[in-house]
Design goal:
By secondary structure, this protein is an alpha/beta fold. It has two domains: about 160 residues, Rossmann fold (3-Layer(aba) Sandwich); about 110 residues. It is built from 14 helices and seven strands. The strands form two sheets. Strands 2-3-4-1-5 form a five-stranded parallel beta sheet, sandwiched between helices. It has a two-stranded antiparallel ribbon with strand order 6-7. β2, α4 and β3 form a beta-alpha-beta unit.
Amino acid sequence: MSNTEPWLDAAWKAFRARVETDRVPHALLLAGPQGIGKGRLAGRIAASLLCLEPREDGQACGECRSCRLTASGAHPEWLRLQRREDKRFIIIEDLREFIRLIGLSCTISPRKVAIVDPADDMNRATANALLKTLEEPPGDTVIMLVCHDPSRLPATIRSRCQWLSVEAPTHEQVAAWLREHPPENEEGPVGFGEAELETALDAAGNQPMLAGVLLTQPDWLAGFDKVMKGLEVVLGEPAKAGACAEYLDGIPADLVWTWLSRGAARALKMTLGAQDTEWLGNHRERLDRACLARLQAAADRYQVVARRAAVRQDLLLRDWLLEWGRQRGHADAA
């Protein structure tokens, strides 16, 4: 299994250094920003650990029985725990089954690899239920927790893991990678120009996986400009908050909240003199730091809710936009 993402190389080499000195951890926390490929790195590590005849550089051979089962997704020693789409968190029943499977004897590979991705989706109850297994996994098992925000995990979980930090890629790295490995849709590789690439990187906050998805979905990518323009309009005319919410209808809710959070962060940087941009024009003087901080935090919360629960997104969005418009100079806006 090859690695095409150069920004993952440092973390991979750090893991290989542990393997070569016989320090393979029983619990590994892969920590780094969302959307940079930590799940792919976890898969690469898992394939390497399960391979029966790994290459000299530690990569899985791709040819042995274990690697063939890994490629087919049917390897009995490769376990994965994720949140169900209709649930807010990983449920305790799924965790218990995960732990039961960890306890079974190996049949093909010399060890078992169990991945929780993302571990952020565990609530306190499921995290506590994992503690004992995490501390003393049966046999030669390696448990990997893929995590976007380690602060959301209980300290008891963090303290039982060896950390493997995954650094965010640079703008240049992601742009070069997408040019060399263009995303694909049902018709094959997607063609795009430099302007589209730059817009996708801006909209994705330099997250390579999201940027690739946006390049395959032109309507979603166009939604980024709609959100940014909508914020500028509402800051000047708060009464248009409702119309703006309707204007943004049709864009996936999690993307809307992601972009609203980024807009609030960008505006906050502008109040601190750290963001040189023409965005918001003459309305900059109406920005309020405390309000922007609250709005960014709220957008981050709603982005999680958008993926996990059936709520009235239109009402949340309208109220958020009203608050955005009620910054300095519009305290009495309706």
